[in-house]
Amino acid sequence: MTISVGDSIPQGTLKTMTAEGPQDLGTNDIFAGKKVLLFAVPGAFTPGCSITHMPGYVVNADKIKAAGVDTIACMAVNDVFVMDAWGKAQNAEEILMLADGMAEFTAALGLELDGSAFGLGTRSQRFALIAEDGVVTHLNVEPGPGVDVSSADTMMQLL
Fold first, then answer.
1. Boundaries of each Thioredoxin domain copy (predicted)?
2. Taking the model in full, what pTM does it have?
3. Which residues are CB-neighbours of 63 under 8 A, at least 6 positions away?
């Protein structure tokens, strides 16, 4: 079942890179007591994600935070090393890069994508959500290819 507006973010553990190396980060650590804009992509370094989706958030990070967002986070079903490298390649210093390597959190959200036709296996659908203190207030899932309802511009209109 797909998460919906009004639902609590499910418990889970993601990975992020720190100066000390990979670190587990629980969803409570990410969402509790904060306003979070989380966007998810099918894969780091893929064309739509690198050319359109991520750059919109990088360019608008200051405006998004000025609108009251505590954390902007990007998640993909990739390992923490790939997410770290992609974040650096995209100059995403203001974005928390989250790896869901086994797609467990993605599955808990009910937002898996079967990318096996492209040799990708299980991935995340392209989506963006806003959560306040761990409760989803907005959820935009892309209905097909492209970046529209989950773009930074669209999500900024909801803040």
1. 3-159
2. 0.96
3. 156
Give the span between the Cα atoms of 52 and 152, in whole angstroms: 10
Tell me the residue range of the domain where 109 lies. Answer: 7-157
Here the CATH number for the domain that contains residue 71 is 3.40.30.10
pLDDT tens series, the chain, 159 aa: 799 999 999 999 999 999 999 999 999 999 999 999 999 999 999 888 898 999 999 999 999 999 999 999 999 999 999 999 999 999 999 999 999 999 999 999 999 998 888 878 899 999 999 999 999 999 999 998 889 999 999 999 999
Total of domains in the chain: 1
